[in-house]
Amino acid sequence: MTEQLSLVEAARAARVTEAQLEALVRDFYDRARTEPVLGPIFADLIHDFEAHVVHMTDFWSRLVLGTDRYHRCVVSPHMGGRFAPEHFDRWLAVLEQSAVAVLGEHAELVIDPAQQMTHGFKRALTPPPAL
């Protein structure tokens, strides 16, 4: 992605579509639900898979395409004790696979912000050092 373009501008230039973002979300969860670390967590937390796909497609659509459908806090659902910092390394690895599979040469449009999110989640979940 060039520095001159915002993420939304780059996604529009690459002609990323809502359908591709939904395919990305579905591909990610197909992979993640069979992943030995993430699979059991998602099995416990996601009770209505189709509703979750819509919710996560809205999230990625807001982030990548600049739509206005996602209005929730992205951090708080991950703070309930099921996720540890190391889980986000696995999340990122699976998401990178899905991004490459679905978006090909434009995978960085998802991978770049996902890397930033991974760092943010890991910071949020890591307790401060003892004094």
UniProtKB/TrEMBL annotation:
UniProt keyword Chaperone, yes or no: no
GO molecular-function terms, A-Z: heme binding; metal ion binding; oxygen binding
> Its domain of life?
Bacteria
Q: Give TM regions.
A: none
- A Pfam family matched by this chain, by name? Bac_globin
Residues that, per the record, bind heme: H119
List keywords of the entry alphabetically: Heme, Iron, Metal-binding, Transport
**InterPro entries tied to this protein:** Globin-like_sf (IPR009050), Globin/Proto (IPR012292), Hemoglobin_trunc (IPR001486)
Question: Which residues, if any, are the signal sequence?
Answer: none
Keyword Glycosyltransferase listed: no
Its protein name is Group III truncated hemoglobin
**What species is this protein from?**
Derxia gummosa DSM 723
Q: What is the lineage of its organism?
A: Bacteria, Pseudomonadati, Pseudomonadota, Betaproteobacteria, Burkholderiales
